[in-house]
Amino acid sequence: MMLQYPQVYADISYILHQNTLVTPLLTQTLQNPGLRKRVLFGTDFFVVRNHNSDKDLLGLMMGGLREADFDVIARENPREFLEKTIAPLG
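The chain above was modelled as a monomer; its predicted structure follows.
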């Protein structure tokens, strides 16, 4: 859907506990400039705490990504997304 619709974003924090399945796809997605700015990490972070501790989840995430990629999805993209002005429907 992200390839077809530029207003669609992905939040990958909930599926983080499935790191071995997610990391290869995430790494590939982050190489696409059009998709890189629309991947977010963090909004569902509290939900995955049922699967692993905060420390373990961060370790899983950082183990599979470069620090620059983590900064984009966990800091830059969420900040830019939250600063967007949403146009009214209609």
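The radius of gyration is 14 Å.
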